[in-house]
Amino acid sequence: MGGDPLLSAPSDTLGVGDRVELAFPARGDLVVLARLVTSAISARAGFDIEELEDLRLAVGELCLLALQGSDRRHGDLRLEFRVSTDSIDISCTLEGAAPALTARTADGLEAEQLSEQILSALVDEHGREQQDASARAWLRKRRKGPAA
Amino acid sequence: MTQGGDETPAPDSDMAEHEGAEAEPSRLSEAEREVMITDNLGLSHQLARRFLHRGEPLDDLVQVASVALVKSVDRFDPGRGVAFAAFATRTIIGELKRHFRDKGWAVRASRRVQELYLELGHATSALVQQLGRNPTVAELAAATGSSEEAVIEAIEAGQGYRATSIDASDDEDHPLSARLGSNDSQYQAVEERALLAPALATLPVRERAILRMRFMDGLTQSEIAAEIGVSQMHVSRLLSSSLEQLRQQIRDDDEVE
Q: pLDDT tens digits, chain A, 148 residues: what are they?
């Protein structure tokens, strides 16, 4: 075969450098949107069924992390998907939400820790940044499936 | 049994919980071991919940996760400098994933989606009758006892979208779909032409010309009439008689065979 499978992929798949954005109101019940879009994009980027499930699961955790410690009644979650030669980068940013007035609870911290542990088990790299009112969580997963 | 790397331990041949403990005795006392397990049952429970949307009952998932927790307690080596929670999370997620893989999840899920898609078809017609309008996804989810997400997924799948495999290809200009068979309408045409050819040959040249103008060039009877210098009525009669002659000819051929 040889050659980069993504560069020689059928035209309806996502190619190297393709970027997709999805923004929706920061509500837990809408995280389903993030998961559905993740499935569609990862599938087109050549990830296999299991990797796709890992990514769906991981994106849910990204959203949870971005939502942590914020007043989530306002603001949007913005997801950005970027496909590169052998991996996919997904970031989730909470925009336009004020930081929560109350300090984080022990439960909240525990939940964050769990999400990070789950991400460690599912993806190759992940991290988070906090900047004023915007929290950002990101992940990178490399492709191991048959298309790689 | 040796432990390789600090990745999730390699899967055993089965779910023998005590195997690890016997092969590599735990440094924990029985009491410590028990405390560690009970303290982390919440973790295994929460991780099991993360896999709920895949269509397995929570109880089964919790069981798999708890067995995996026991495994991770028995295998945990504090000397490696990895926090237990991180180690256990990896092991438990690994086991949950393996649970789905061993059960042939990919196949099952797609069948589940297909079944749901069919079920949605029935539910939709029933709800249209009942409501006098098209049902919403929420109504379909309630009617089929599935989550809204599953319904959306099934609809999506039913509309031809499927994960990687369906249209994956190693050839840039030829996606798999291009190689899938379909009924080629041209075959029918070829067959009919083959049948017609001998019959056509028996017709006079003028009649053949009229048939060609009518059916291949798409001219109207009046246009044909103008072309060959006869009345439209005459063209009509010639067409009918030619067609009748062709039918007769084909019937005769059929009987001979």
A: 444 554 444 445 677 788 999 999 988 888 888 988 998 888 778 787 678 888 988 999 999 998 876 665 678 999 999 998 889 999 999 887 766 655 667 777 888 889 999 999 999 999 998 877 678 999 999 987 554 4
Residue A97: which domain range?
15-142
Quote the pLDDT of residue B254.
66
A142: its two tokens? 């490399």
Q: Quick check: is A50 in a domain?
A: yes
**How many CB atoms within 10 Å of residue A56?**
19
Q: How many domains does chain A have?
A: 1
Q: Is residue A100 part of a domain?
A: yes
Task: Supply B17's token pair.
Answer: 């919980």
Q: How far apart are CA B74 and CA B80, in angstroms?
A: 14
Largest CA distance in chain B: 111
Query: Is B89 in Cβ contact with A121 (below 8 Å)?
Result: yes
Residue B144 has, within 13 A of its CA and on its CB side, a CA count of 28
Interface of B with A in 89-118 (CB under 8 A): 89-90, 93-94, 97, 100-101, 106
Would A2 be classed as within a structural domain?
Answer: no
Sequence-ordered list of residues with C-beta below 8 angstroms from that of B232, at least 6 positions apart, any chain: B221, B222, B224, B225
Which chain A residues have a beta carbon less than 8 Å from that of B163? Answer: 39, 43, 49, 52
pTM above threshold 0.90: no
B:48-67 residues touching chain A, CB 8 A cutoff = 50-51, 53-54
Nearest C-alpha in B relative to A61: B50
Q: Which of B137, B164, B180 to mutate to test the interface with A (most CBs of A within 10 A)?
A: B164
What's the pLDDT tens digit per position in B172-210? 445 455 555 556 656 666 666 677 777 777 888 888 888
Q: What is the CATH number of the domain that holds A105?
A: 3.30.565.10
* Token digits of residue A15: 């190619």
The ipTM assigned to this model is 0.74
Q: Identify whether A148 is part of a domain.
A: no
**Cβ–Cβ < 8 Å for A59, A92:** yes
